[in-house]
Specification:
- It contains two helices and 22 strands.
- By secondary structure, it is mainly β.
- It has a single domain, classed as Beta-galactosidase, Chain A, domain 5, CATH 2.70.98.10.
- The strands form six sheets. The chain has a nine-stranded antiparallel β-sheet, with no helix packed on it.
- A hairpin with a 4-residue loop joins strand 17 and strand 18.
- The longest helix is centred in the middle third of the chain and has 6 residues.
Length: about 270
């Protein structure tokens, strides 16, 4: 089901399926900023990467001493979230463990997602609550996809991603499909930048992240969109044997909550 937030500047629509943004538009521009999903390229639009970012080549992970078949980036991309609450400027959703999630990830958890719309910027806040009788281990990241080009008279190669600081040469990555032939996922580890801007020089998406995100990635499957992806961590896909709990993952104790968030503004 689609839920809508609207103010004087913008309209935001969020789908309970995968808890993805279905649409984000300014009222003064005839532009859809978000990828709409197309199985010819990629059916998703911006999934939450939980309880792991990426996976192993075999799609097998070892949890609590047992091997489990998983999907890439976790199960949120294929999950129906529960609508919790709507206010004048926010939407809240929830996902709790079920038989389906437990078969891939044998932990009890609660994942809360809150979207807040202020002017032309959406703030997305997450809370992971440990419902285990012990520690909870997980990975976390974001995967929003933006139309690229944003307008009909532009090409994919007219766009660049600008970094706030010199994490890449000249503080920018010029987009081209050739770039993603060389680097299927363009990854920057430990970026100093907290602001990343997708732009053609006129229209922009300005993403702002917290210092909890230790990786920033760009991805497209040779499609008319690009994903700007802040991650906390990721799995080594070549490592087929290390137990999940011993990998580079987040750990929180019984009853504890992990909070993180980011935002992006359409300009």
């Amino acid at each position: 089901m689609i839920y809508t937030l609207e103010n004087d500047e913008a309209i935001l629509k969020v789908d309970t399926y995968a808890c993805e943004i279905a649409s984000f538009r300014r009222k003064d521009k005839d532009i859809e900023y978000m990828w709409q999903g197309d199985s010819a390229y990629w059916k998703n639009r911006g999934p939450v990467l939980f309880p792991h970012v990426s996976s192993t080549k075999s799609k097998i992970l070892n949890f609590k001493g047992q091997d489990h078949k998983v999907t890439n980036h976790g199960f949120c991309r294929n999950s129906e979230f529960e609508f919790v609450k709507q206010t004048d400027d926010s939407l809240s959703f929830r996902l709790v463990d079920s038989e389906e999630t437990y078969s891939q990830y044998p932990y009890h958890f609660e994942l809360l997602v809150k979207y807040t719309l202020k002017d032309c910027e959406v703030f997305i806040d997450y809370e992971v609550v440990n419902r285990e009788d012990g520690d909870l281990y997980f990975g976390f990241g974001q995967h929003p996809a933006f139309n690229c080009p944003l307008v009909e008279d532009k090409e994919f190669s007219d766009y660049r991603v600008e970094f706030e600081k010199e994490d890449v040469e000249n503080c920018r990555v010029d987009l081209s499909y050739e770039l993603f032939e060389r680097y299927p996922t363009f990854v920057v580890n430990d970026p100093q930048s907290r602001v990343f801007t997708l732009t053609d020089g006129t229209n922009k998406v300005v993403m702002r992240t917290s210092d909890k995100y230790r990786i920033f990635a760009l991805w497209t499957p040779h499609a008319p969109f690009v994903c700007l992806e802040p991650w906390v961590n990721t799995l080594d896909g070549n490592d087929e044997t290390t137990p999940f709990e011993e990998r580079d993952v987040i750990r929180i104790g019984k009853g504890e909550t992990y909070s993180i968030g980011y935002s992006f503004e359409i300009v």
